[in-house]
């Protein structure tokens, strides 16, 4: 028994000494752990995005970022097209979310711009990823203009990532660690809101887009303003919620309005009674 225990202790010590020297999952895990503190988002609400940056689109054409900032707000996503797991899930969930937002349409109210953070990205991968994603959002007549998939081999990627405050790290060839964040930008190129997570709530996306457009998108600008008044963004919970104070103001105004209507109805009923004057009867002198 003692011999078995001694051998076990010796093997364990040998494993602990040799394991860090071996390539494979353990080394990769250590590398990722070291990179994690450098990955995240430094929010820059109100900052101007550099619209003069030049990129290449999924068809190999040189385009200017500002070309996509007309006619509504923009949802910016930074991903990479060879990503095997996270990015395809993000694209699929985003496609489902924008389909679920019935009051707003990608075809006319806003755009999505996706940029690869991989400087070794290829047009072929961008074209394949764009085609795969566009098939999930039917009904968009010109998806290349409404949801382009861009790439760049120069410093433009880092310039845009720095402008929106996104920090990421290369973990190896065709492998990046990056946060899952959607940056909602106004038509003039100013950062309006950050939405986090792999999957967005349709209500959060709708409110963020309306907020970025000052309510001037969709079929009912008046209703948009009412919704923006009733909801506010909670920085702690990273989502939109009911604004209790504003709801109470609306409820109080409604109560006063109903009370006024009731008093008016009683006054009119008193006027219509025989002998009714709408005034209190005069008292007799003693």
Task: Walk across the major sheet and give the strand order.
Answer: 6-5-4-10-11
**Unreliable residue stretches:** 9-31, 243-247
Q: Mean pLDDT, as a whole number?
A: 79
The CATH H-level superfamily of the domain at 40-213 is: Glutaredoxin
Class computed from helices, strands and strand pairing: alpha+beta
**Biggest β-sheet strands, sense, barrel:** 5 strands, mixed
Beta-strand residue percentage: 15-25%
Number of strands: 13
The share of residues in helices is 40-55%
Q: If you consult CATH, what is the topology of the domain at 40-213?
A: Glutaredoxin
**Overall morphology:** elongated
CATH class of the domain at 40-213: Alpha Beta
Number of helices: 9
CATH A-level architecture of the domain at 40-213:
3-Layer(aba) Sandwich
Quickly list its features.
286 residues, alpha+beta, Glutaredoxin, five-stranded mixed beta sheet, two-stranded antiparallel ribbon, 9 helices, 13 strands, 17% strand, elongated
The gist of it:
The protein is α+β, with helices and mostly antiparallel strands and 286 residues long. The chain is built from 9 helices and 13 strands.
List the helices and strands and how they pair.
Blueprint: H1 2-18, H2 25-35, E1 40-41, E2 54-56, E3 62-64, E4 74-79, H3 86-100, E5 111-116, H4 123-134, H5 143-146, E6 149-150, H6 156-164, E7 166-167, E8 169-172, E9 175-177, E10 181-185, E11 191-196, H7 202-212, H8 221-230, E12 231-234, E13 239-242, H9 244-272
Parallel strand pairs: 4-5, 5-6
Antiparallel strand pairs: 1-7, 2-3, 4-10, 8-9, 10-11, 12-13
């Amino acid at each position: 028994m003692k011999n078995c225990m001694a051998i076990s202790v010796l093997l364990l010590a040998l494993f602990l000494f040799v394991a860090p020297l071996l390539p494979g999952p353990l080394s990769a895990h250590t590398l990722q752990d070291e990179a994690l503190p450098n990955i995240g988002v430094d929010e820059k609400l109100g900052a101007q995005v550099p619209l003069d940056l030049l990129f290449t689109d999924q068809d190999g054409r040189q385009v200017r970022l500002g070309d996509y900032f007309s006619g509504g707000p923009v949802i910016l996503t930074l991903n990479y097209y060879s990503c095997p797991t996270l990015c395809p899930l993000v694209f699929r969930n985003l496609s489902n979310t924008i389909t679920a937002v019935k009051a707003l349409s990608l075809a006319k109210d806003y755009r999505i711009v996706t940029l690869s953070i991989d400087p070794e990205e290829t047009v072929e991968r961008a074209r394949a990823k764009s085609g795969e994603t566009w098939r999930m959002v039917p009904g968009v007549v010109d998806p290349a203009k409404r949801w382009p998939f861009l790439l760049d081999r120069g410093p433009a990627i880092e310039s845009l990532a720095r402008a929106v405050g996104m920090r990421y790290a290369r973990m190896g060839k065709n492998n990046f660690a990056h946060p899952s964040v959607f940056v909602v930008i106004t038509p003039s190129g100013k950062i309006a809101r950050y939405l986090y997570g792999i999957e967005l709530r349709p209500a959060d996306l709708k409110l963020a887009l309306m907020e970025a457009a000052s309510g001037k998108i969709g079929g009912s600008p008046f209703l948009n303003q009412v919704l923006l008044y009733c909801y506010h963004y909670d920085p702690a919970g990273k989502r939109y919620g009911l604004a209790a104070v504003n709801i109470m103001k609306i409820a109080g105004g409604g109560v006063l309005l109903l009370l006024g209507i009731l008093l008016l109805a009683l006054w009119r009923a008193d006027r219509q009674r025989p002998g009714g004057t709408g005034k209190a009867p005069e008292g007799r002198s003693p």
